[in-house]
Write a structure and sequence with these properties.
The chain has 2 domains: 20-149 and 276-306, Rossmann fold (3-Layer(aba) Sandwich), CATH 3.40.50.2300; 151-274, Rossmann fold (3-Layer(aba) Sandwich), CATH 3.40.50. Helix content is 44%, strand content 19%. It has helices spanning 13-18, 58-74, 86-98, 111-123, 135-138, 151-164, 180-192, 207-220, 232-245, 258-265, 277-294, 316-324; strands at 5-7, 45-51, 76-82, 103-107, 128-131, 146-148, 169-174, 196-201, 226-229, 250-254, 269-274, 304-305, 309-311. The strands form 2 sheets. The protein has a 7-stranded mixed beta sheet with strand order 1-8-7-9-10-11-13, with helices on both faces. Strands 3-2-4-5-6-12 form a 6-stranded parallel beta sheet, sandwiched between helices. Strand 7, helix 7 (180-192) and strand 8 (196-201) form a beta-alpha-beta unit. Helix 3 runs parallel beside helix 4 (111-123). The longest helix is centred in the C-terminal third of the chain and has 18 residues, at 277-294.
């Protein structure tokens, strides 16, 4: 198998224990707004959720919804903020410590960039739980546990599934250069795939450019029979690129959205692998709450997996109900 980097143009907790995107509308708050505090949801304990989320990403809306639902269930105040710049995300973490919150949920797309702030929070006696990204560094930085998906496990499962589905020549679409979790997805998928997989880097901040880049790639190489995207909104871009290019390639994706479910039901997306972002937000807060009230550590210090869960034409209709509620 040959791999290349091709630059583009530019549950309750118990239920989870049995078990790093598509876009609309998430608002983020910069560290300079209200001292880094988002709108609280009320309650006896206060937990900060500080992610690396960019604006306008429905995947992160689901993480936020999960955290806020946990706040409702536990009568806790949830302060949610996000910034994709690790320096600004670090400032948000520092602000949360200064506000003496009872715990912090942190996603670490750039672990080294937020390391100092996470370790400082732990040193200050503020419990930290990591979610979504940064699983390998979580314990090293002093976090209680990590809630999320092993990108290597999920990637390998996707590679095997692509082989079973008869794919032979696939491009893996990385929408954010330097994101270690995304790179691991492609690397692990390629390692388990029986065919050839090449990576292509696109600018995930511009869906029109993503589609144009993929369309040009498909038009230039008719041997490509598969497009693997790493977020739901990019699967929609890929479907458009396939149609506009006249390619016979099929699309598969990581992560889920209501649009992706529709495309699966209509046969334009073969499958999606869901890491269940609502679970990550909900159980991230749950783990802090249980630690606050009872000294519990979910997972015994080991990561708690929220995925991968495959969504195909066989189960897409059943999941659509929950996607419409903004929880899948």
């Amino acid at each position: 198998m040959k791999k290349r980097i091709l630059a583009g143009l530019g549950i309750t907790a118990a239920a989870v224990l049995l078990a790093g995107c598509s876009g609309t509308g998430q608002e983020t708050t910069s560290p300079d707004d209200d001292g880094g505090a988002g709108a609280p949801s009320g309650g006896d304990h206060t937990y900060a959720v500080v992610t690396h989320a960019p604006p306008g990403d429905a995947f992160w809306d689901r993480i936020k919804s999960g955290a806020e639902q946990a706040g409702v269930d536990y009568d806790a105040t949830i302060v949610y903020n996000g910034d994709p710049d690790p320096a600004l995300q670090s400032q948000l973490i520092d602000n949360a410590v200064a506000q003496e919150v009872d715990g912090i949920v942190v996603s670490m797309a750039n672990p080294e960039g937020v390391k100092t702030s996470v370790e400082a929070a732990v040193a200050a006696g503020v419990p930290v739980v990591t979610i979504n990204a940064g699983m390998e560094e979580s314990a090293e930085y002093g976090a209680l546990t990590h809630i999320g998906q092993s990108e290597s496990v999920a990637g390998a499962a996707v590679g095997e599934r692509l082989s079973e589905e008869g794919f032979e020549n696939v491009i893996c679409v990385i929408q954010e250069a330097g994101h270690v979790g995304l790179e691991e997805r492609c690397s692990s998928a390629g390692g388990a795939f029986s065919g050839e997989m090449d990576n292509i880097i696109v600018d995930g901040r511009n869906d029109a450019e993503v589609k144009n880049t993929l369309r040009a790639k498909l038009q230039s190489d008719d041997s490509i029979d598969g497009v693997l995207t790493l977020g739901g909104q990019y699967a929609i871009d890929a479907v458009g690129a396939v149609e506009e290019s006249g390619s016979a390639a099929r699309v598969a994706t990581f992560d889920l959205s209501s649009d992706v479910l529709t495309e699966i039901e209509d046969g334009r997306v073969v499958f999606a692998v869901d890491q269940q972002p609502f679970v990550q937000g909900y159980v991230g807060v749950t783990s802090l709450y249980l630690n606050t009230i009872n000294g519990n550590v979910l997972g015994g210090g080991q990561p708690v997996y929220s995925g991968p869960a495959f969504v195909t034409a066989e189960n897409a209709e059943a999941i659509s109900e929950f996607a419409a509620n903004g929880t899948r």
